Amino acid sequence: MSEEEKEKSLNKTMNEILKWLKFLGFEKALEIFKNNFSEDFEYKLYELSDGNRTTRELAGILPINKDAVTTYWDKWAGLGIMEKISVKGGGTRGKKIFSLLELGIAVPE
Fold first, then answer.
1. Which of 65, 108, 60, 57 is nearest to 87 (CA)?
2. Where residue 109 falls among pLDDT bands split at 50, 70, 90?
């Protein structure tokens, strides 16, 4: 088996494992969202947190300030539904782990 074939096989296996992990965590993820999100803007903030947008950008879109964005990111990272990623120049940003639409949760307008 060539290196390229090994890599393709490994990628296929990893994707299969990822599908199963998502399936197994589906109910727990729904429970976390149900128990910790009560405002429409929280769902919007979570869905918009892609690791690229800054706290200032998100605060400009939503009815919260940039410090509140950071507070939510920290809370959600603690719940296991968000990862904190390092950015150039220092600091971190929040990146959602789940797509709300994949979980069947509608994102408010």
1. 57
2. confident
The full set of domains in the chain, from first to last, is 3-96 (1.10.10)
* DSSP letter string, the chain: --HHHHHHHHHHHHHHHHHHHHHHHHHHHHHHHHHH--SHHHHHHHHH-BSSS-HHHHHHHSSS-HHHHHHHHHHHHHHTSEEEEE-TTS-EEEEESS-TTTTTPPPP-
How confident is the model over 27-84, as pLDDT tens digits?
899 999 999 999 999 999 999 999 999 999 999 999 999 999 999 999 999 999 999 9
